[in-house]
Amino acid sequence: MVVTEREPRQEEHSIRPTGWENDPEEERFRLSLFDPIILVVYCQFALFFRLDDAHRDRAAEVLQQGLEKTLSQVRHLCGTLKKDDGGGFSFVKKKATTVRYVVKWLDGPEYPSIDDMEKMTFSAKSLGENDGAFSIDGMPYGEGRAESNPNNSPVISGYQLNFVRGGAMLSSHIHHWAADLVGWSNFTRQLAENCRAVWDVRATGGAPQWPPWDPACIDVSRFTKQLPKDQLIDGPPVAPRHPNLPPADKWEAVLFHLPKSKAAELKALAQPSSPVEGGQPWVSTYDAMCAFVWRHLTRVRVPYYDADRAQQAPWFGESVDMRPRFRNPTPPARMIRNMLTGGFSEMAPAWVQLPTVGELAATEEQTPLSHIATYVRKLTSSVTQEMVEGVLEYIATLRDQQSISFNLMAKPPISLFITDHRPADVTACDFGFARPLTHRFLTRGSVSANMAFVYPPQASSDGGDDDQGTIWSIGMEKDLVTKLRADPEWSQYFEYRGVD
């Protein structure tokens, strides 16, 4: 352990998995065919806690022991991403591997309190001008960054616990090829249970009573395949940033709250008046929310880009977790490796037709919201096990599988990609020292154009708001934010919460 003498107080630990002394000299965990689908980035997942100052030191110790135990289970998160001799990549864990665990005391007046963060909806902006202090150096979010490029042998994960006035924030930096959103939430659930076991020892004495762990939660052998080199083909070239997108500094992520009651109104509004083709007579709350956001973003963008209303919408996509969609066998409920793919408009079957730009931007009388919501429902339903298995078979034939990694910045203006964070809700996780108030995916000002995150309702500190709903973080053009907020129909449902 190294203790830094300057302000703010900081401790840096190089931690090892529990029982590392008996580990093999080297372990290799091959990438699955799911892994290269996802963005090549570091993810920074942040958990926010209320915490009594008297529990700080104990919480830091408990978290360290919990991490050590969890890393002994989720073993591929220790080490680096390395090329394999036969092609492809593996997560490589060596016996001597350590993982960074940093503890910082950011409790001076120059840093926000947990109350300050909560008042700003736990936005990235709520961290203040010194937001970099809350993150581990060298593991930034951002598409096209050298730090996360698999050819540069990036480390897989690092963790930082930040104490602030009245609470704490835990940052988990994880390479996206190692875990998707739900994978991170499953890691967090295992970590919380391990921490709780350590915390309980304080009262009971003796050794922690560890919760069960199933090694199948990191076993993706059914999704690995290595063809002989002479059977491999070149994939599509990696597309550059779309030339018609405004420069990166013209975008910002904006937060909106959709109260639970308003989401219910949208769902009712978006219901088809009669069963749609294919026999699906309903749409979900998710479908309705996505349709409404897509419609209103398109309305403000059409004149900005002078878009042709007669043309099909340029592109729409959504993340789709395949854990509940795969059978024979069904993956373990706490699968931590990637099983994320997407519903992408260009890959949809012929019966899933994109609406036109004009239909998206139309009034309810011209084109009902149900038309757009039904498209979202059809697209989601089209992402089946059989379809994804075909995609994985194609990926196995590629010489450079990174060529098919999701590349949002290459999509044209008026595109939209939505990531639903509601299945990753970890506010019920009991770490012993506290339960999280909410989580956030922090990008530190690196805004992915046309990406929207849907966060679950946050846990309230004072017993709760019965109408607490989802939080939307929407990456959009700065020039259009005021216009969107001025739309009376938009403001009837969505409450502005500031810049993320």
UniProtKB/TrEMBL annotation:
- What protein name does the entry list? Trichothecene 3-O-acetyltransferase-like N-terminal domain-containing protein
Q: Which domain of life is it from?
A: Eukaryota
**Transmembrane segments annotated in the record for this chain:** none
Using the record's annotation, list all stretches that form the Trichothecene 3-O-acetyltransferase-like N-terminal domain: 41-195
Chain residue ranges for the region called Disordered: 1-21
MF terms from GO for this chain are: acyltransferase activity, transferring groups other than amino-acyl groups
The record, for Gene3D superfamilies, names: Chloramphenicol acetyltransferase-like domain (3.30.559.10)
**What is the organism of origin for this protein?**
Apiospora kogelbergensis
**Example GO biological process:** secondary metabolite biosynthetic process
The secretion signal range is none
Q: Which InterPro entries is this protein grouped with?
A: CAT-like_dom_sf, Plant_Fungal_Acyltransferase, Tri101-like_N
Q: Which UniProt keywords apply?
A: Transferase
Question: What residue spans carry the Basic and acidic residues bias annotation?
Answer: 1-15
